[in-house]
Amino acid sequence: MNYQQFNKEDFISDSFFRQWVKHPDNESNLFWENFLKTNPGQADTIYQAAEIVRNISAAAANLSEKSSFVEEEDLWESIKKQAFETESETEETSAPNIWWRGWSTFAAAASVMLMLGILGWVYLNRRTSEPTQVMKELVAKTPSRYIQEFNDAEKPKLVILPDGSSVLLQKDSRLTYARKFDGEKREVYLVGEAYFEVSKNPQQPFFVYANELVTKVLGTSFNIKAYSEENDVVVTVRTGKVAVFHQADPQKEEKKNSLSLDGLVLLPHQQAVFARQELRLSKTSGETVINLPKILPVQISTFIYDAVPASEVFKELSTAYGIEIVYDEGVLKSCRLTADLSDEPLSKKIEIVCKSIEANYDIQSNRIVVSSLGCQ
Amino acid sequence: MDKEQNHRDDALLWDAFRRGDEEAFELIYRTHSSTLLSYGKRICPDHDLVKDALQDVFVEIWKRRENLRDLHTIKFYLFRVMRNRLTLLMQNNLTSYGDDFPEKNEDLLSPSIDFILMEQETITHQQTKLQEAISSLPSRQREAIMLAFYEDFSNEEIAKIMGINYQSVLNHLNRAYLSLRELLTEITLLLSLFLSYSFQKILF
């Protein structure tokens, strides 16, 4: 390259120059420092060209539209289905229509199970038995905007979301959510079944994407059953109110963006069933029609207390959410609680209980530690 | 992270993927899906088609993984096949998008009295103006700008991704810069000239 003759636009168009401005390394620093020493007359041009490179880069970065992780998750589900399923069949099908259309129609075969640790992806794979050391390292190096929780145990797994909402994840179910709930919406992606208690924030609606169905809530508790191989998606409301609509709903955007609940609205003990084959969404109500697939302890408890000893409250919370709660029974002996906690997520319940008995608490990954000086 | 290390990681990942490691496949998807989607959406107004193309690309590379050769970088490879696939889908799609998509705000940005006020404007405002100006470029120029300044591809890589020769990439970038300069005046392009300390440290 004849850099001596270069003008500003030549530098801007030069990849080695751009690379140095944006990602300088030893090699390029050495080259350009030398070049400037021998060609001091080009310093001004280079200085300005570098500035322009950085300004255009900043503008380009702002222009690039971020795709939603819901879109990426949906696509990944269909890619897995396509890639791994056609493979397990024999390779004989050389049909011309190998290019599969309709990314939104997905079902069947969750062939890769995965879970995410706090530091990175840790994969449990059905085919390859153990992640290799190399893959473990590569996975740990890759920063992710999202957290994935997978439950392969019989016992429901408690997940506490960044906004304090609690989720009880059932067996063979996976939940994906952003590390931080910034932005206008709180969005989670569910494959399988989970019971949600969403902390109230009408300003930042909460969305669950599960198969083809979108469930919008402002703060309440409900159950969603959406296994990818099952024919129905079932949403059951326990408290409060939720709205349900199809992902392909033409008015989806308006329904999502409004601060009210539009669409098929469900009240407590109502249920929406989406028949995936017939693309039909229907609502049933009344105690008798409710068939909660798996009744969880958390759905039986009323969480309404009238002068109940605090230790009993903690015992009930511990059973309901399947989490260990550490407290000193002797110290809490004289503490009693009167409160209605029926419509709060776990973190809020703990906060309210501890506030009223003047105790401190710490929510850790697998247990909650309560420290108190006792009550008079 | 340094470039050498990135290259080595890329090679390790690609090897694992070619041996049929599903975790490697997923990691490749998770690392590149978002940027490929936004690239696709920038060059094709039909977003469903972009998703179809992305799905096709990943299903296809999985099926043919054993026949895939060693590669320069995974990102470059994926951009290249993504663009090919998308171009093909757009051609097959009965809707004709024409050679160039309708340009946005073509005459919205003609130099105007704003120009006089420029110096008093905030840097953020000038950044916005610069963004608008980039959006108003003809689509091929805009694509080259995004690949060069956002995705940080080299000119050789851009040529192969866009399926044009090296000189055309230079022409696109040069012309893009000249139209930006015409639309905005030098001042905006150099908007933070007096605010950049870091660069001076590198330079002197």
UniProtKB/TrEMBL annotation, chain A:
Residues passing through the membrane, by range: 103-124
Keywords assigned: Membrane, Transmembrane, Transmembrane helix
PANTHER family cross-referenced by the UniProt entry: PERIPLASMIC SIGNAL SENSOR AND SIGMA FACTOR ACTIVATOR FECR-RELATED (PTHR30273), PROTEIN FECR (PTHR30273:SF2)
Protein FecR C-terminal domain: residues covered: 303-370
Listed InterPro entries: FecR, FecR_C, Ferrdict_sens_TM
Protein name: Ferric-dicitrate binding protein FerR, regulates iron transport through sigma-19
Annotated FecR protein domain residues: 159-242
GO molecular function: sigma factor antagonist activity
Record Pfam families: FecR, FecR_C
From TrEMBL, chain B:
SUPFAM superfamilies named among the record's database cross-references: Sigma2 domain of RNA polymerase sigma factors, Sigma3 and sigma4 domains of RNA polymerase sigma factors
Ranges of residues in domain RNA polymerase sigma-70 region: 28-86
Cross-referenced InterPro entries: RNA_pol_sigma-70-like, RNA_pol_sigma-70_dom, RNA_pol_sigma70_r2, RNA_pol_sigma70_r4_t2, RNA_pol_sigma_r2, RNA_pol_sigma_r3/r4-like, WH-like_DNA-bd_sf
Pfam families reported in the protein's UniProt record: Sigma70_r2, Sigma70_r4_2
GO terms, biological process: DNA-templated transcription initiation
RNA polymerase sigma factor 70 region 4 type domain mapped to chain residues: 129-178
Highest taxon of source: Bacteria
Membrane-spanning residues: none
Keywords in alphabetical order: Sigma factor, Transcription, Transcription regulation
Sample GO molecular function, one term: DNA binding
Cross-referenced CDD domains: Sigma70_r4
Family: Belongs to the sigma-70 factor family. ECF subfamily.
Protein's name in the database: RNA polymerase sigma factor, sigma-70 family
Lineage: Bacteria, Pseudomonadati, Bacteroidota, Cytophagia, Cytophagales
